[in-house]
Automatic annotation (TrEMBL):
The keyword Disulfide bond does not apply. It holds the Pfam family Glyco_hydro_26. PANTHER family: GH26 DOMAIN-CONTAINING PROTEIN-RELATED, MANNAN ENDO-1,4-BETA-MANNOSIDASE E-RELATED. Residues 1-196 form the GH26 domain. Keywords: Glycosidase, Hydrolase. Belongs to the glycosyl hydrolase 26 family. One of its GO terms (molecular function) is mannan endo-1,4-beta-mannosidase activity. GO terms for biological process: substituted mannan metabolic process. This is Glycoside hydrolase superfamily. PROSITE patterns: GH26 (PS51764).
Amino acid sequence: IANGHFDSHVRDLAKEIAKKGRLVWIRQMHEFNSENTYQWCLYPFTSAKIATFKRALRRLVNIYRQEKAPVKFQLTFMAKNPHNDGTPFSQFYPGRRYVDHVGVDLYVNAGSRLVSLKVRLEDDVYSQLTQFSKPIFIGELSCTDKGLDKAKWIHDAWNDLALHFPKISIINWFFEDKGGKRQWNLHSPAEVKAFV
């Protein structure tokens, strides 16, 4: 991406969006601070990988702008770097001109402690996001129901968002089950009730 290999594809999409004239939000290379989830994941982090990532993001944004496509760009971190790596979110930031919205994807997996959303966000996540002075979102949020009280977690999450995190303006729940212990959808009346 950073070297222009996909420019023609991106430009074609940008032209189509411009032709339609409707605002589109794009979450490019989400969860980039993860490990092995996608081809664009950067862990283990190096200054060269981070520089290439920033160059790629800027290149993509510039193409959409050249084509005058009505696009807003979301920068999506995983809430936690792999292996407790302490690299701050700011190291990956491509600059204010290239980001309209900052956010995280956050999951509670089977076998993990039932950590509340409040605890997860207060663990140096929300404070890092607010430093960018951009609107904040949660791109993907879910909790498994395998071995955890999912209904209670959901209820508490909505409460915590309302009371403690006023700058989070968009929350997307991840409803797709991935099999095994990663059951992200709502499976019981109690979970549905907690969600709505």
